């Protein structure tokens, strides 16, 4: 027989007491950056199509891509690219069976975050 008092029981408090772990956050961010890089690839292809379409259309597209907002989007894209690349390297290391203990995994997670910011900064300085 169905439990008729089902609606009277309290909800699980998991959302109130759960503290997200660094590895879960870095995994979610790795997926987000992968999808964001797809959007960046579409912007790059649009820029190339603009270059192939003619001078007037290219000036329009290039003006958008090199505007202040475009510079912010491209800078964040560089950050996402470095973060996603470092996440891929971390997963390659994990695929060999190394670095799976919690302390090493946390250090690699912080390395991804700090490394991606540092490499983005160096990339933007070099440009």
Q: If you consult CATH, what is the topology?
A: 3 helical TM bundles of succinate and fumarate reductases
Provide the helix percentage.
over 70%
Oligomeric category:
single chain
CATH architecture: Up-down Bundle
Class by SSE composition: mainly alpha
What overall geometry do the principal axes of the alpha carbons give? Answer: extended
Query: Per DSSP, what share of the residues sits in E-state strands of 2 or more residues?
Result: under 5%
- Count of strand segments: 0
Describe what you observe in this structure.
- It contains five helices and no strands.
- Helix content is 79%, strand content 0%.
- It has one domain (21-126): Fumarate reductase/succinate dehydrogenase, transmembrane subunit (3 helical TM bundles of succinate and fumarate reductases).
- The model has no long low-confidence stretch (mean pLDDT 90).
- The protein is mainly α.
- The longest helix has 32 residues, at 22-53.
- The protein is extended.
The gist of it:
By secondary structure, the chain is mainly alpha-helical.
Ordered list of secondary-structure elements with their pairings:
Elements: H1 14-17, H2 22-53, H3 55-65, H4 68-95, H5 102-126
Helix pairs in contact: 2-3, 2-4, 4-5
Features:
3 helical TM bundles of succinate and fumarate reductases; extended; 79% helix; mainly alpha; 127 residues
